[in-house]
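User: Hi! I have a protein structure encoded as tokens and I'd like to know what sequence might fold into it. I'm fairly new to this, so please keep things simple.
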């Protein structure tokens, strides 16, 4: 299982992403209330959507890490790739997963 420090760091990163999204959403609301132009509103809205997607992926990734760590304790904290010779650390696996967003 992940250590409390790792879980706390993951939660901190997720909260930072969500707070950033909240700030972006506030900017969208302000732009709409001020009658901002369509391009600005849509651009800011796309940023909010992306930030929320990334936060969601981070939540899922954190859960995957916890589950995978539990299963891999006997396997030196690594996951075998399809070729079976190269090994990814969980940090590399998480980075790859987050790049899908």
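Assistant: Happy to help. Inverse folding works backwards from shape to sequence: for each of the 101 positions I chose a residue that suits the local structure. Here it is:
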């Amino acid at each position: 299982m992940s250590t409390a420090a790792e879980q706390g760091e993951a939660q901190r990163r997720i909260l930072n992403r969500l707070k950033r999204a909240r700030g972006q959403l506030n900017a969208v609301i302000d732009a709409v209330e001020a009658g901002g132009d369509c391009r600005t509103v849509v651009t800011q809205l796309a940023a909010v959507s992306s930030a929320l997607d990334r936060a969601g992926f981070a939540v899922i990734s954190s859960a995957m890490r916890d589950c995978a760590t539990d299963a891999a304790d006997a396997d030196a904290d690594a996951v075998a790739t399809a070729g079976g010779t190269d090994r990814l650390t969980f940090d590399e696996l998480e980075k790859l997963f987050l790049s899908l967003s």
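A useful reference point when you look it over: The longest strand covers residues 78-80. Feel free to ask if any position seems puzzling.
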